[in-house]
Amino acid sequence: MDKKIREKLVKEKMLAGVVSMPSNIFATTGTNVSILFMDKSNKGDVVLIDASNLGTKVKEGKNQKTLLNAEEEDRIIEVFNAKRAEDDFSVVVSYEDIKTKNYSLSAGQYFEVKIDYVDITHDEFEEKLKGFEKSLNLLFEKSKDLELEIRDSLKSIRYE
User: Fold this and answer.
1) How many CB atoms lie within 10 A of CB 101?
2) Smallest Cα–Cα separation from 46: which of 91, 2, 7?
3) Does one domain contain both 73 and 25?
4) Fewer CB atoms inside 10 Å of the end CB: C or N, the chain?
5) 98-131 pLDDT, tens per residue?
């Protein structure tokens, strides 16, 4: 959605919430769909829901479609109506928060990045590092082989 439209919705405080749906929710289009709920009386917080990981993909003729089951639909409705934040699913943000995030209405932009720290021993660290180094060296070798292959292919190209 055009930034000017999002900006107007935020400045005028006209949003109740946004639900980002799974891709292929409509069989005729593969584009991502977000449903905007507008409410001029909502001057408080806005609920943003990322339902993009929900649903089951099914083949419908030549098209692929994503279907939500009743529990998934109920979850979206209940979280939306309660304006409840759930990890990696929904956030409740102020209009100022949205402005700060360049008027993004995507819930994923507001999720906290969680980092799990795991204590490992010095030997475990060294073993992991050796594994990464071995993988990197294999990738470098493959890169050199590909570079030579590309150079050889370029030599065979002639203008006629």
Assistant:
1) 13
2) 91
3) yes
4) C
5) 999 999 999 988 887 667 778 889 999 999 999 9
